[in-house]
Amino acid sequence: MKWRDTLRRWGLPLVAGVWVGLCISAVERSLTTNQLGGAIAGDPAPELPAVDAGNDWGQHTPRTSAVRQLPGGMSLEPGRLRANVKTEFNPDVESPRVDKTAYLDPMSSVIGDVEIGRGVFVAPFASLRGDQGQPIYIGNDSNVQDGVVIYGLRTFSEGKPIPEHMYAVRGENYSVHVGDRVSLAQQSQVHGPVWIENDVFVGMQAFVFKSHIEAGVVVEPGASVIGVTVPAGRYVPARAVVTTQDVANRLPEITFSYGLRDINKATVHVNRSLAIGYSGGVPASHAR
Question: CATH number for the domain including 209?
Answer without folding.
Answer: 2.160.10.10
